[in-house]
Amino acid sequence: MHLEVIVEEPSARTALQNILPSLIGPAHSFRVLAFQDKGDMILNLPRRLRGYSHYHQKDFRIIVLLDEDRKDCRELKNQLEIETRNVGLISKTAAQGGAFQVVNRIAVEELEAWFFGDIQALKAAFPRIPAALEYKAPYRVPDQIRGGTWEALHRVLRRAGYFPNFLPKIEVARRISLHMNPEFNRSHSFQVFRQGILACLT
User: Fold this and answer.
1) How many other β-carbons are positioned within 10 Å of the β-carbon of residue 130?
2) pLDDT digit string (tens) for 138-174?
3) Containing domain of residue 151, as a range?
4) Shared-domain flag, residues 65 and 93
5) What is the phi-psi region of residue 97: left when phi exceeds 0, alpha when psi lies from -120 to 50, beta otherwise?
6) Residues 128, 104: one domain?
7) What is the three-class DSSP state of 202?
8) How many other CB atoms are found less than 10 A from the CB of residue 124?
């Protein structure tokens, strides 16, 4: 199986390039395509999907990943489902157990929540982070971190002596994702994404 994974920005591409090999194994291939940001993705996704609508290979799947960014995740998912249907492709949701070409997924609320879902990876990448971080109330449920997950991640890193002025999102995504264990990630939205990937391989 070949997977085309479409994400909204480069740091997500960097993370998934490290995470996907352990998810899909060596028998399958993938490519991660990134837009510049969410606005760019929403504007240009229909054209990208329309291009894929001409593909008819049996061993080809498309995964679309969009950050929630404190929006209504059901509304965002519905928007992706409409775009998929409009170009004549069948999503996993619409297929209801049948054959599909596209998996639409939402990262709640942002990719960085997935990093908080694997505190061990976070600590492996940045050893000065306190060992007790995963037991602190604000970080126990990664998808419910308040005030923005990338902002929360920057605060945690800054307190540990990293990146005092700004968060280099691509570098941070690369360093953390190298250590992530997908099977045990505590982010629910990550596990929904993982299940969607695995469904493509069966």
Assistant:
1) 12
2) 888 999 987 789 999 999 999 999 999 999 999 999 9
3) 112-182
4) yes
5) left
6) no
7) coil
8) 15
